[in-house]
Design brief:
Elements lengths: L7 H6 L2 H12 L7 E2 L6 E2 L2 H15 L2 E16 L5 E14 L5 E12 L4 H17 L25 H7 L15 H14 L3 H8 L9 H12 L11
Antiparallel strand pairs: 1-2, 3-4, 4-5
Helix pairs in contact: 2-3, 6-8
Amino acid sequence: MSVENISTHEVETYPVIYRAIAGVIEDIGTVGKEKVNKQQGFKYRSIDDVYNALHPALAKNKVFIVPEILEHERTEAGKTKSGTTIVRSVCKIKYTLYGEDGSSVESVIVGEALDMADKAINKCMAIAYKYLCFQIFCIPTEEMLDPDAETIEPEHGKQQSKKSIQKSRPKEDTPRPEDVKVTDVMVKTMNAELDRTGLSDAILLKLFSINTLNEMNVVQFQKAMKKFEMTPDKKGEKDE
């Protein structure tokens, strides 16, 4: 059915909340970054900025929003320089937007916040509400950063998958285990196992086609140790 063929009666039977949200989107203006974080020096949009921008549009279109915390996780995230405990809260919050006819739209948002007192949950709700409004009402934000505009590079050697490590390291920095010779400690370990089991080193030399234990590589050492694990102590040692 085309838009031209929709009757006035059919439009009036649509849930009011849909038309109301569209009305809020039409009436609301840009929310700029007016506040400044004094510690780190960046600008941000406060929850008050969002409230002030939204209030007239919500009132005009008769929309109100009801929050409900579905899940809450509270953990310690460390301490400040002065020793005060930092609390991290993560809240999963369901927001229901109601129109004047009782029709509604639901949206679930996760908010995360840190605090050094008892305001962590409050901060979670504030940040969740702020971004709910930005996204539901498509609020223009002047210069909000697009996630595709930056790439976060993890610190070398931390939180990287095996694939990323293999790609980032030159081949010469990652020798294969079969190219790494055993250390003196490994040789002493094998000699101790030979004494324990009563076996001759000739068995290992023949098995790996080498002349001395020092010629073994790490892979061969691991195979030898597995064989030792399955070999019992030489007879009579436990009875002495």
